[in-house]
Design a protein that fits this description.
single chain, Rossmann fold, five-stranded parallel beta sheet, globular
């Protein structure tokens, strides 16, 4: 996938190349993640790597459709309340995160970029709400067409209607293992499989194969949200799911199908064919 999260992004371009892309009415994908512990078997940047990966795959799909696309520098200063008790889970204040996102969008707008799509891979409530706050304010104050790309199953969770002018909604694909009684959401089989498929040097595969499943239910998760001591009791190793049950092929297909869905969504927005979904 390249040497770093800057590969194929604006960071590895010179200003003339960026200016030329803007003249060609390039759109921008803005990957958003966090730096957060992901168990004993992976490094801290999983969410940043995955949001970057999805953006890169989406860019490839859009370029096939003749839509000039730039990827902004991945944003990794986000909010970690749940895992803040683990060393390595950096967290910033909501106002800090919002300011960085808003100022990033202001820079893009000042260069003549008009269409930006935020692609986030970190589902913590306050983190997502801060993205929405920044996008909504930039949409209004800057006059930039910036959107938070969201799945239809997230709309009610974040008290949205799906018709807001600063979000675009796609139909969520079922996550591998989502029918299980036990949650597999953080450093579990899917994220481990994705990282092994695209960034294998970031995973200790031998250790992964020795890890036991956590068997955490939705009720356990609600208990963990009550505070630091509860989190360390429920996920002492910093993951919930079954990392050893990873399936690289299933994970790869899931993430590539997701990227294709997002590319189709973005194409419909650019072409003026997007219609807000009725999610109520």
């Amino acid at each position: 996938m390249g040497y770093s999260i800057f590969d194929e992004t604006m960071v590895d371009m010179n200003w003339l190349e960026i200016e030329e892309a803007i003249k060609q009415k390039a759109i921008v994908l803005l990957p958003v993640g966090v730096i957060e512990e992901h168990g004993p078997h992976m490094g801290l940047a999983v969410d940043t790597y995955v949001s970057y990966l999805i953006s890169k795959l989406v860019r490839h799909e859009l370029e096939k459709r003749s839509i000039k696309t730039l990827i902004a520098p991945p944003q990794y200063w986000g909010i970690n309340n749940l895992t803040a008790c683990f060393p390595g889970s950096f967290s910033v204040r909501p106002e800090t995160m919002k300011a960085v996102l808003f100022d990033t969008l202001a820079s893009l707008k000042s260069w003549g970029i008009n269409d930006v799509f935020c692609i986030n891979w970190h589902a913590e409530y306050q983190h997502v709400m801060t993205i929405l706050d920044a996008v909504q304010e930039a949409h209004t104050a800057l006059g930039i067409k910036v959107y938070s790309v969201m799945a239809d199953n997230e709309i009610k969770k974040f008290k949205l209607t799906g018709k807001e002018n600063y979000i675009v909604v796609y139909h969520a694909l079922p996550m591998p293992g989502s029918n299980s009684l036990y949650l597999d959401l953080h450093a579990g089989s899917l994220e481990t499989g994705v990282m092994l498929s695209y960034f294998p040097e970031q995973v200790n595969k031998e250790l992964t194969e020795s890890l036991e499943p956590t068997r955490i239910t939705s009720n356990d998760f609600k208990t963990a949200m009550q505070g630091k001591s509860e989190v360390r009791k429920i996920i002492p190793s910093g993951y919930f799911g079954n990392p050893a049950h990873f399936d690289q092929e299933t994970s790869r297909i899931y993430i590539e199908d997701k990227a294709t869905s997002l590319a189709e969504l973005i194409e419909s927005v650019i072409n003026g064919q997007y219609k807000p979904q009725d999610t109520e």
